[in-house]
Amino acid sequence: MSQRALIHLPAKVRRGEVIMVRALVAHPMETGHRVDSGGQRLPRDIIRRVEARLDGELVFAADLHPAIAANPYVVFPLRVTGDGMLTVDWSGDRGFAHRERAEIVAT
Amino acid sequence: MKTAALALLFLAVAAAGEPRRSGFADMSPATQAMQRDDAANPAWLWLKDGEQRFARDCARCHAVERMDGVAARYPAWDATLRRPLTLGGRIAQCQQRHVGGPTLEPESDARLALETFVAHRSRGWPITPPADPRLASWRDRGRALYGQRVGQLDLACADCHDRHAGQRLAGSVIPQGHPTGYPIYRLEWQGMGSLQRRLRGCLTGVRAEPFEADSDEFTALELFLMQRAAGMPVETPAVRP
Questions:
Q1: CATH superfamily of A5-31+44-104
Q2: Which of B39, B49, B52 minimises the CB distance to A8?
């Protein structure tokens, strides 16, 4: 799919406010514990790490594990001190890496 | 806003003593919240993908606004093939005739994405099956299939979804089987699927041989089911457990 990830921010953001950043990424999150129809074990293919940076500064990070459902949805709070560029990076098995950006405009 | 309107519609339908229930009404509050919230609904990954594909492949003929309400009228008659087409079938035909490139295979991400995007433009619209007389014999066939016992378990759709709807099959509430939200994001599938995928799951569940993808049987069943759900609001993109 060409649409790999979605980041949702509140429509209006005030300076000093704590907002909830909601991030959804398309990924199968194959656990590594399942077998295919031929009895062969399906190799693990999961996202290992999510990192969010605001203008380069790490503001949120999480390690993901095999029991997490496909297309993981991550929500985290963020205090807005001013305008900025939020970057979310997902990385994992088989060299998976995806970056999505969202601009924060504070009023 | 749209979500609020949709919720109101549900309330209005419930208040009017409507005996029909969308599967939405029987879901857990958590799954309902997932469908209501466009940011949490994973179907939006496909929907946004469909939006981009539509802009690239379809927009030179079809204005996006002209897609409003279209999905509520499908399946519809195709004059060229002289048979009805489901929305997914219509999109695949259109791609083949006018766009070219690789065929949109049933259950492929590309076809599901376009179907989700187009069907979403009808969210909140009442299901309005076309009155085309050429569809009548197909609907009758669908009605017959719905009532016909199949498989080793010797069950018809009607056995569960009419006679035992609202009761439980193991831990799950048996829904009335109204196809209001397709394509759906199903938690069990961990992905999107069409109504045909859902029907195939039911057929293999009663240990019957499923019909081919895009077969006449699936189209006839879909025509009947949409007639049965006429007037209920479209929910696409729905989430189901």
A1: Immunoglobulins (2.60.40.10)
A2: B39
* B11 membership: H or E segment, kind and range: helix B2-15
In this structure, which amino acid lies at residue B220?
A: A
Domain boundaries, chain B: 26-240
Contact: A24, B40; criterion CB under 8 Å: yes
Other beta carbons within 10 angstroms of residue B93's beta carbon come to 16
Give yes or no for B53 touching A (CB within 8 A): yes
pLDDT tens for each residue of B152-205: 999 999 999 999 999 999 989 999 999 999 999 999 999 999 999 999 999 999
Nearest to A22 among B39, B45, B109 (CB): B39
Distance separating alpha carbons of residues B70 and B94, to the nearest angstrom: 15
C-alpha to C-alpha distance for B90 and B73, rounded to whole angstroms: 12
ipTM here: 0.89
Rounded to whole angstroms, the Cα distance separating A85 from A92 reads: 23
Rounded to two decimals, the pTM is: 0.90
Which pairing describes strands A5-8 and A18-25: parallel, antiparallel, or unpaired? antiparallel
Residues of B in contact with A70 (CB under 8 A): 42, 190-191
Of 3.40.50.720, 3.20.140.10, 2.160.10.10, 1.10.760.10, the CATH number of B26-240 is 1.10.760.10
What single-letter DSSP state applies at residue B232? S
* Active site (annotated) includes residue B157: no
Angstrom distance (rounded) from CA B120 to CA B112? 12
What whole-number distance in Å separates Cα of residue A92 and Cα of residue B199?
35
Alpha carbons B156 and B43: distance in angstroms, whole number:
30
CB of B216 less than 8 A from some CB of A: no
